[in-house]
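re: ur question from the group chat, yeah i did fold both. here u go
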Amino acid sequence: MFFQNEFIYSINSRKLYFIGNVYAEIELINGDDLCQARRGEIDPDEVRKIRIIALVDMDVANMVINENIQETLQLPVKDHRKVQLKNGNITSCDLIGPLDIRFENRHTICQAYVLPGNSEPILGLIPFGGMDVVIDPAQQKLVVNPKHPDGAIFRTGKLVIVQ
């Protein structure tokens, strides 16, 4: 696992890399809309979605979006939770979902926290792992796991699920 602003050794090249902030272009889709479109209740063109640039941050557990993204997606609020921001402040925010997150040939479904205003969106550890993606330290960008280029592999104990 790679963390921002740390020096790491690349296993393949034995080189030392400094990992700064890594951003990825991802697509966020309203999961409820996807289900309705599959059932024929709405036209596929009515599915609410948005392409964004998100910070990839392994110090954050979940997906984090802002109110502007939530306004576009109109995801249902599941709960209201307190979260601690990187600056140490504690704030309350909505927990929304289901959110379908897509990157290249990968996708995962999760919940997301909604921060106020135009806060920076963050792709956290849970969706990162769910898509089986990695950070390429040489290019300092998010890529599909080269060990599993055709699809994500999820590991849960001894059981391996191939998507």
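okk and heres the other one u asked abt
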Amino acid sequence: MRSLAAILASSLVAAATAHAAPTVSLVTLLAVHDAYGWHVDAEVEGTGLTAAALTPPGGDALAVPCESGEGVILCEREEPAPPNAGFASLAAMLGTYPAGTWHLSIDGGVRTADLPFDPEEPNGAVTVTSPANGATGVPSMPTVAYQNECTTCAFLAFRIEDADTLGMVTEIEDLVTGEPPLPSGQIAFADFFDDAPIPLADGAYQIVTGAGLGTLETRSFKQGGHFQYGSGGERQSTSQFRVPEPAAATGSAAVVAALAALSLRHRRG
């Protein structure tokens, strides 16, 4: 059995090594419009890192808090952060968080890079039509149908997350990319998974959709090493639904249920 001192010593060595050589795989810096208005959305993903910060032109450094995920470290910051109101327009947001060269610092300067940020506003949004917003009795493996109204967008992002913890328990994502305009369509539930799909448990969920335009490129740290950098502008919308699918109705109850569902769809249309 290893002694406690040996275990602690090994842990300290591993921590020091990780701190000296953090690995960053992806950095994103987006101007995002949602129900709160326009805000800056920054993410840094990698391993062995403990802290990240972004400094806009002429501004103060913005700490990007980090936490452990499934095999990775994820650092995230929204500014202004919900439920605080965002900016009324992209131009207003850029007045406080301007376009230009942003400075990225990892672990207090162990890794640094300069990132261009010049977001454009999408000319439309994407709307999920099925499951309908507010739908109940949704199957545990739903197909997502959507209507895209953005003719300039090069990507459409879809995220299903549990409504109670906002993704801390369940979060699955899919991305549609291509030359604009991207067509409307649907996403099979299995497309949200790299492996076999896992049915949604009973409960409330929300679908966060994003329509955006921007770039994804390979960037280098000044100290060496490469990472993927995505930047641009995105319009987000949110809809909600509830699982599970109800038990089959019979007789007159089935007729009443069908008429109620038809009436509900008509009012929403």
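fwiw on the second one: The longest strand covers residues 203-220. The mean pLDDT is 85. idk if thats what u expected
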